[in-house]
Amino acid sequence: MNNTSTSIDIHDGDWTDGTLTQILTFTLNDEEYGVDILQVNTIREWTPITALPDMPDYIKGVLNLRGDIVPIIDLRLRFSLPEKAYVATTVVILLNVSYLDKDLVIGIVVDSVSDTYTIKSENIKQKPQVGEHIQVNYLKGLVDVDDHLVLLLDCAKLLSEQQLEQVVELD
């Protein structure tokens, strides 16, 4: 990891403001995704969690993190990818998100953690506009890292507003 003394701001919306951003990357179905490292709370190995009834299949359940109830989202299922058994490299990345001026934590199940990169915000390309049938609303953009594209996630859009409100109520 490249440790520099450059100040890095949390980017809630537009990552193309000319600053440096550090991202944590992870794999999902042999594709590499990234999140702003300042949103990462913790990375945990997969352990069984408490299932909740009547939830979408991609919400695997919740865990208790130091008194906070954290929903766990299987990104494979959220993105309509084939289901895969959890193995030793499967991890849960706990992410800090804001909703209605409330700080929340959500967890995402991913195949494995890849790396961290420091990128220039100006190198982030806008998400593609590919039509109404392909969902890209979870993406903030794309960036070319080491000759491959990394899809940058908009973590606050992994759950619907209604689901985020339910998380606020659980907390």
For this entry, give a set of tags:
45% strand, 2 helices, mainly beta
Write the layout of secondary structure elements.
Elements: E1 20-28, E2 31-36, E3 40-45, E4 59-65, E5 68-74, H1 75-78, E6 91-99, E7 102-110, E8 112-120, E9 125-126, E10 139-145, E11 148-153, H2 161-170
Parallel strand pairs: 2-11, 5-7
Antiparallel strand pairs: 1-2, 1-8, 3-6, 4-5, 6-7, 9-10, 10-11
Description:
The radius of gyration is 16 Å and the shape is globular. 26% of the residues are buried. The protein has a six-stranded mixed beta sheet with strand order 8-1-2-11-10-9, with no helix packed on it. Residues 1-16 have low confidence and may be disordered. Strand 1 and strand 2 form a beta hairpin. It has helices spanning 75-78, 161-170, and strands spanning 20-28, 31-36, 40-45, 59-65, 68-74, 91-99, 102-110, 112-120, 125-126, 139-145, 148-153. With 171 residues, it is mainly beta. It is built from two helices and eleven strands. Helices cover 8% and strands 45% of the residues.
| Mean pLDDT over all positions | 79
> Count of helices?
2
Please provide the ordered H/E string of secondary-structure elements: EEEEEHEEEEEEH
Classify the oligomer: single chain
Low-confidence stretches: 1-16
Structural class: mainly beta
- Helical content stands at under 10%
Describe the largest sheet. 6 strands, mixed
Radius of gyration: 16 Å
What is the β-strand count?
11
Q: Tell me the distance between the termini.
A: 34 Å
**Apparent shape:** globular
**Strand order, largest beta sheet:** 8-1-2-11-10-9
Strand content: over 45%
